[in-house]
Amino acid sequence: MSTFNVPSREEVSTNNQAIFDNLNKALGFVPNLYATYAYSDTALENYLNFSNAKTSLSSKEKEVVNLAVSQVNDCLYCLSAHTALGKMNGFTDEQILELRAGYASFDTKLDALAKLAKNITENRGKADQEIIENFFATGYTKGNLIDTIVLVGDKTISNYINNTTQIPVDFPVAQPLETETV
Fold this sequence. Notes:
Elements: H1 14-27, H2 32-37, H3 43-51, H4 59-72, H5 76-88, H6 93-101, H7 108-122, H8 129-137, H9 142-165
Helix pairs in contact: 4-5, 4-6, 4-7, 4-9, 7-8, 7-9
């Protein structure tokens, strides 16, 4: 049961109403999680600017991080949204389940990224040196490491907002993860 109602356009600030209008134009709807950010007069705009900022990671790599982090943080909303986005970025259902579990048997470089994202999240930023070294060995740079950590923070914010507010999922609901982790 939701502890928060999802605010409508009429219930948010004028600034957030304009953002809702832009989201409707771009996506065809305002995702419930974004609408929930709009309880604050500033959080939605701040989050979207942060989330859409330039990064050295590709869209596909961002989804690897988003899926691994959302699984560790047990956020059904973000798992559902990023399962849909993962499919849009070319991942299969099986690959998405692996990424959620924190590995990618189908791609060495993405495997290193998924393992790092999972490890950083589980250890609250104190990543295992071996996992970091493997990340670099696959061709990632120190800049990619920093961008990965920033993305872990980005996704954790949304995970925590959803896990606190329990707003309804408005994406096809992600299936439970039953895969063993490697």
